[in-house]
Amino acid sequence: MTLTHFDAQGQAHMVDVSDKAETAREAVAEGVVIMSADTLALAQGGAAKGDVMGVARLAGIMGAKRTSDLIPLCHPLPITKVAVELAAEPDLPGIRVTATVKTAGKTGVEMEALTAVTTACLTVYDMLKAAQKDMRIEGIRLLSKTGGKSGEFRAP
After folding, report:
1. If you placed Cys at 113, which of 26, 39, 81, 101 could pair as Cys (CB 3.0 to 4.6 Å)?
2. Which of 7, 19, 38, 126 is catalytic?
3. Tens digit of pLDDT for each residue in 32-45?
4. What is the pTM of this model?
């Protein structure tokens, strides 16, 4: 398998997508923040810093939009949709974050979806760290992607 971010000499480079066709593309990613039941109750009821889930949702959206500023070889993309959902899951206990990102372009939005999830999870941690420092951010992964030459992917 050839990695696309390296040239023939093994040097990192930005992939040339000039000749690729524009297609509708979508990526969905998820991650969880594991915490105690007491901390989860705080997150649902409004912590000292405010609406944890609302602020984390906005942070995830902002993260998706800034992906090319954070990941060196990502192309800046005309994102057409970012949806970030946060759901309290008492059985974990914790918060599951899911992000869906769409574009019509020459390259996919997998990194934008993963960045949205990561940014939202980090924001949850930041807002609740005064209550619990040993929270864990886990399971950040791509669930699905559509569009482009490689076609559809669904996580097993």
Report:
1. 101
2. 126
3. 999 999 999 999 98
4. 0.90
